[in-house]
Every structure is written in C-alpha cells, then in structure tokens.
Amino acid sequence: MIKVGFIGLGTMGLPMAANLLRKGYPVTVYNRTPGKAGELTELGAATAATPAEVTRDVELVITMISNDDAIREVYYGENGILGAIKPGTIVIDSSTISPQLAKQLAADTSAKQADFLDAPVTGSKPAAESGTLVFMIGGDEAVLNKIKEPLHAMGRSIIYMGPSGSGATAKLAHNTIVGINIAALVEGLAIASSGGIDPSAFLELVNSGGAASKMAELKTPKLLARDYSVQFSLELMLKDLRLSSVLSDGLKTPTPMLETAKGLFQMGESKGLGALDVSALGQCYEEWIGKQLSDRKE
C-alpha cells in the first residue's frame, strides 16, 4: 500500500489523516505546532520532525495548511518539502491557496522530477471526520488516476477541474458562494428576528423552502444554540474571500456580492470573532439590531 506523508494537522488535516490510517495506509505526519499528533500515533501514525523528513520516506505527500505564507514555509523553507523530494513522488495540496501559488508549486515540483496536484476540498470539519469530502483537482489527470484510492479514503467525490491552478480557482469561486450564503442567512434571520418571528420557526422555513442551502443546513443548529465552535473559522473564510477578490480583479470579473460579503467578514474579524465558526458573523447583526438571533436564553 502506498506510503503517505501528511503535513498539517489542524481542523481538517487531523481527521483526514485519521481516515487514511483507518483504511490501512501507512502514514507519517508532521505539524508546525507540536503536540497535535497524539490521536494519530494511537492509530498507528509515525511522526517526523520536519517536512523534509516526512517527504524522504513516502510516495505521496499531502499538505493541508492554513494560508499561502505557511505553504511557502513548508515547501520552500529550511527542511522543506522541495529540498528533500525524490523523483516520482506525488505531492497534493488540499489547502485553499492562490491559483498563482498552486501553479508555481507545480512548476517547482516538476523541476524535481516529481508531480504536484492542487486538490482543495469542500465539506468542512464534519465531512473531514466522516470521510465525505469533495476534492477538486488541478493538474495532470494521469497523475490523479494514480492516487484516487487514498483520496477516496478521505472523500466521497473527486472532480477533475483542469490544468494546474484549476482546483485552486474552483475552490475560491466555490467559497465565494459559501461566504455570500452565510451572510445572506444571518441577514435574513436578522430581518425575521427584528420583525418578531421566532428564530427556530424561521430557520425551519428556510430549510424547507427556496432559501435552503447546505450552509443553512449546517449552521441552523449552531445559530440556534449560539454554538460557535469551529467547523470552518470566520478568519479562514475571510482569507478565502480576500484571495477570491484578488483573483477576480486579475480576471477583470465584477464581483459586487463578493466585496460586500468580504466587508461583513472583515467587520466580524474586527470584533474579535475570527477564531470562531463562520456562524459567529451573526453576532455582528445581533449588535446592530439589539437582540439575539436565537431564542436561547443568555
């Protein structure tokens, strides 16, 4: 069975690596912040002290890192992936990064006679835990065909998007819709709450009618319970919207709704909500309308 290296054990990476281990893959893990590998070592994972150490011993390297700067550190830094990679190794990055960086990683990996795929995911923490993520892939489709089995250990669907950078582009376009959906959900809930409508009844309506969405389904229980534990953090959503804004500017594509949603999430971050779940955006509206968006008693 193919040997896998997994770098990045955060909200998404840890359950993804756990699912590989449960499916019998030998996995070596590394995380920039120490102390996150305990659960994985109990499942049989080996640990490494650096990204380079991970890379030397495996045939497939998967990275799941928070942002472009962190990706550059892991790939190009001292003891990074590209300094240790062997010819024939396949590297996939499942982070949400800029398409420009994805293309650069593909070129620099190819120069080492190895292969790179940009392979971001959608599904947030619940799907990472259940192994039902959706992968969107940019790069050589023939390379993708070699590693579909380990991807299916972590996800339910693999969608090929096109050449290098296409997966990253698709993810930013996708998360633009997600961010707008969340903003629309809490804004509609604010209107209903201001009008004296019971939040539970209103969200039942949303999930039963034309306003239904995956985000409404996921965030309804969190909004009603005022549960802001992280499935996908507000600060990461804002990071993705900023990347999408840069991308759309380069593509000369007008995005008025993206810019509005980005502004709302910037307000949330300025209120200190960045480390909470995206549903915490509702706290901004609660401040503006002077009442809770939940019937939970504080």
Question: CATH-wise, what's the superfamily of the largest domain?
Answer: NAD(P)-binding Rossmann-like Domain
- The geometry reads as globular
Number of domains: 2
Total DSSP E strands: 9
Runs in which pLDDT lies below 50 for 5 or more consecutive residues are none
Structural class category: alpha/beta
Strand order of the largest sheet: 3-2-1-4-5-6
User: Helical element count?
Assistant: 14
Order of helices and strands: EHEHEHEHEHEEHEHHEHHHHHH
Return the average pLDDT rounded to an integer: 96
Q: Report, as a whole number of angstroms, the end-to-end distance.
A: 52 Å
Supply Rg. 20 Å
The description of the largest β-sheet is:
6 strands, parallel
Any guess at the CATH architecture of the largest domain? 3-Layer(aba) Sandwich
Strand content: 5-15%
Helix content: 40-55%
Q: Return the CATH class of the largest domain.
A: Alpha Beta
Any idea of the CATH topology of the largest domain?
A: Rossmann fold
Explain this structure.
The chain has 298 residues and is α/β, with parallel strands linked by helices. The chain is 51% helix and 13% strand. The strands form 2 sheets. A 6-stranded parallel β-sheet has the order 3-2-1-4-5-6, with helices on both faces. Strands 7-8-9 form a 3-stranded mixed β-sheet. Helix 4 (68-76) links the parallel strand 4 (60-63) and strand 5. 48% of the residues are buried. The mean pLDDT is 96. This is NAD(P)-dependent oxidoreductase.
